[in-house]
Amino acid sequence: MNENKKEQTLEEKWENATIANNFIFYKIMRHNPDVCKELLEILLEFKIERIEISQEEEINIDFDSKGIRLDVYAKGSDGLKVYNIEMQATDTKELPERSRYYQGVIDVDLLKSGQKYKDLKTSFVIFICVNDIFGNGLPKYTFENLCQEDPKIKLNDRAYKYFFISKNCDKILDERQKAFLRMVTSNKSSDDFTDRIKALVADAKRNTQWRKQYMEWEREKTYIREDALEEGRQEKAVEAAQKLLADGKYTAEEISALLGIPVETFVEPANSQSN
Q: Domain extents for the chain?
């Protein structure tokens, strides 16, 4: 058996976690606003006077649900900009849609009843990805709404989405961006900022409360995945049962015994025969 294929225990996952782990990333950014501000400045390439990070501390363990909280949501002290930044080590095949959802959630959160749409803040949704989810070899993909007939015309809705690709970091020109993105994939620091990040990661893993939260979060994810797999198996079994019933070669009771599912899951009530 190839030892490299052996699945890590939760303890090993915690000990081996780097800044690329979204739990670690969240905790460090949430509890170090100055570090979060500096990272935003590095990635967006403009100065930010100060940020206020959302005081929402609860981690929604089902991080793929609509109530996602496993990200960093910050508002600029100028009152004009908001930032949502998330580490995404794996390609979940729905990050573009997730960015759209985040943008909508931010707008709903910001615009109170009676306010004008002009009052919406300039928003930046940022994903730090390991893999190139678009496959075009770019180290950074920036999106804003443009006119299809004439791309020189911008919608000017002040909504921006960024996808930074750490595996393509060598193509990036900005040295500070390159240093951080390289650290995401290699866990090696190469400047003052990444040195500090590495030290904060080490401190985070010595935090017993965070370790406990991480273990609970990982276990809950496992339960959710197992439930989803079981539900998928159930759906396939029902489909197979319905096909067998339609063929007419077996009775509903025989199919139930064969596939191990109740008759009522694949027989319409109106078609069920009473004993």
A: 6-206, 234-269
